[in-house]
Specification:
- It is a single chain.
- By secondary structure, the protein is α+β, with helices and mostly antiparallel strands.
- The protein has three domains: about 150 residues, Heat Shock Protein 90, CATH 3.30.565.10; about 120 residues, Ribosomal Protein S5, domain 2, CATH 3.30.230.10; about 300 residues, no CATH class.
- About 35% of the residues lie in helices and about 20% in strands.
- Strands 1, 2, 3, 4, 5, 6, 7, 8 and 9 form a nine-stranded mixed beta sheet that branches. A five-stranded mixed beta sheet has the order 10-11-14-12-13, sandwiched between helices. Strands 17-33-26-25-24 form a five-stranded antiparallel beta sheet.
- It is elongated.
- This is DNA mismatch repair protein S5 domain-containing protein.
- Keywords: DNA damage, DNA repair, Nucleus.
- Belongs to the DNA mismatch repair MutL/HexB family.
- One of its GO terms (cellular component) is MutLbeta complex.
- GO terms for molecular function: ATP binding; ATP hydrolysis activity; ATP-dependent DNA damage sensor activity; mismatched DNA binding.
Amino acid sequence: MIFLNHNRILMSAASRIKALDASVVNKIAAGEIIISPVNALKEMLENSIDAGATHVDVLIKEGGVRLLQIVDNGSGIMKDDLPILCERFTTSKLTTFEDLNKIQTYGFRGEALASISHIAKLTVITKTKDDTCAWKTSYKNGKITSDSKPTAGKDGTVIIVEDLFYNIPSRLRSLRSSAEEFAKILDVLCRYAIHTDNVGFSCKKFGESQFSLNVRSEATRQERIRSIFGSQVSNNLISLDMQDNREYGIVENSGKISNLNYNIKKGIPAIFFINHRLVSCDPLRRSLFQVYSNFLPKGSKPFIYLSLVIAPANVDVNVHPTKREVRFLHEDEIIECISNKVQEELQKIASSKSFKPGSLVTNKLISIDNASPGTSSTSMNSAISKIKRQENKLIRTDSSQTKITNFIRSSQPKIHASFSTSIRTKPKPLLESDENTEIVPRRGTPEEEGHETLVGQNCSNNSRIIKSLLHNTYEVVQRERIDVNLTSIKSLKETVDNETHKELTGVFADMTYIGIVDETRRLASIQHGLKLFLVDYGSLCNELFYQIGLTDFANFGKIYIHDELENKEGLLLSSLLSRIDNLSSTNMDEIIKRLWNMKEMLDEYYSIELKGGDDSIQDVRINCVPLLLKDYMPPLSKLPFFIYRMGTKVNWGSEKDCLDGILKQLALFYIPEIIEHVDQDDVSVTQEIRTQAVSKTEYLSTVLEQVIFPTIKRRLLAPKGLLKDVIEIANLPGLYKVFERC
């Protein structure tokens, strides 16, 4: 006891109250604000967004301890402000305490850079739009270490933080591994990338060429989520929008939440932004998870992103050193409003589920993102990599896999029609004709304008039969690609871009082709994710070949034509047009004359070569047609109708309309022809016709699987008009609910 009392007397004598040294105070304050590299990153990131940056690049070394660099293209810092930049409580964002009631920016205390400078080596390079050069300044312990030096640089600010916690060894030892600290930084960046509109974000490790995160500034919210968390999340989202509620100070409430098809055991932590500030709000999180528990299987977790804008006067942002928490008025009432809205949206989904085919328009599909989703998705989903296998959510076919049938190149089957084609290097007739064949136009309905096809029929009173053999051979022509600068072509390309439906384009880019359903109605089936779709491949081909024609304008290959009956190059236009019903000789001559007058343009832009009309219009021959897609020959039975529509449906008086019209006719020409159904058990049908029908179907199936649909995956920008030609007919979770197995 005497020993203890003596010790107490000694402690009392040494415990006089005195003011702490300024350096100690600053280190303590810095330790409260900057706990780990991710806190430093968050403070600098918010400064960049406050400065109006449209792109933020982050470079990390050893988890942000050795190097943490952030580059933005914001407004920059004035040179006169650089001396006090890292002093505590210096800010441009508020003047009086009352300004906190209307604060609209992330930063407001003026402590972030000051705190960083006390525990790290800090360098700032900045340039405003009015400066002639950038200025480089270094800081230590809140003070500038040397005068600002002029240097080369772009508008904006570069902040370089090196050797974080170099003077606080205990804090340095408490940090986790470099990989874990980097994962924390990436997590915060991804959350801001999802929320912040019109700002692009990128992040990579020092010395690596591949980005861990890369989000375009113009990307939509759906695209940002897909780029970061992958299509498993973005495919199963619904929008959450609430009207403002002035009673509780709610100005705006929006977000993205997962539907009932998305449920995993180890979910992604909920993302909450209140007044555009990343915060954790446990009461709101628990309330929303409780709502989802009534709909999802036990233990499953939803995806929740929510942005809540509350009147600034109702929010206290100054309650936590790192600003990760805020307090707001009417908290219980606001949480109840949001929970009720989520409950309402989920009930709509649950009550509207049915087992009949649904239209594609009703579903939220994935989007095209030119960013690299794989890298950031891998990092962000590391926590959910070990997931229990769910048979009703298992995609058993990878759209990127190659089918074994693609390695089996069967010879082109013989098909009954009016022309014949073969590869000159190894002749194998593709289309054959006999003396009892004539070309007859098949009239379609008005809704199928341009989708008519010319088919061979047996007739006793047939007219003069075109017996010709069309050969094509692939030859590499050494010529440079022509750059087309026509305003009309650029305008047509812009129209295609503007009409693109990004979600539908994503479906086709990630699809798996299954097969033909009905060759008479031109229907095929494809799979995307867990869904099965029925598509009109005629409409798809029409759009595909139009876009190929527009992309390769004036750079087409050529398919040369040879008339073996007359042993001449090309086919007479008059002979082809004679196959069109009710076409007078006067109209026929007008069509030929119109095409002949435009022969130079047709040859230069479209590789449609016309010869022989110098002496007589009746002698005009078509020597070649354009090659739009290698390994695919257009249906040659449609050639007469192609010539006819070129002469009657194209507006030759307007440049844009003319070029567009010819491209549309080429696209119609290239659409696979309709194959009429032939009953193989009908004894009245000859064996020859039955065999030809089988050969045509087999050839069409091969071409669609190995040539056309792979090209659709690579090249098609699906327009909004194609939505009506794509119908969802089944999905795996729905089938499991009906049959409990597949």
